[in-house]
Design a protein that fits this description.
single chain; 75 residues; mainly alpha; Recoverin, domain 1; 60% helix; EF_hand_dom; EF_Hand_1_Ca_BS; EF-hand-dom_pair; signal; calcium ion binding
Length: 75
């Protein structure tokens, strides 16, 4: 049961996790300003601060999703 639940969760989260993993160069699950700017050079420190809604200095999946939804990250 546990394995099935984890597989389902991974499937459901798979799409949401894609955005962050593309930008997360070192794969630690958090996206720093350096990693954002490597993919989106036009993102300024102010833009990054606006995306980092919990102000921990890095973007998690939820913050990446919110930034994309808000149009702050344009590929
Ligand atoms: Ca990272
Ligand atoms: Ca954050």
């Amino acid at each position: 049961m546990k394995r099935i639940a984890l597989t389902l969760a991974a499937t459901l989260l798979g799409t949401a996790a894609m955005a962050a993993t593309e930008v997360d160069a070192n794969g630690d699950g958090m996206v720093t300003i350096e990693e954002v700017q490597a993919t989106y050079p036009e993102v300024s420190a102010d833009d990054f601060s606006a995306m980092d809604t919990n102000a921990d200095g890095a973007l998690d999946d939820a913050e990446m999703q919110a930034a994309e939804a808000a149009g702050l990250l344009k590929s």
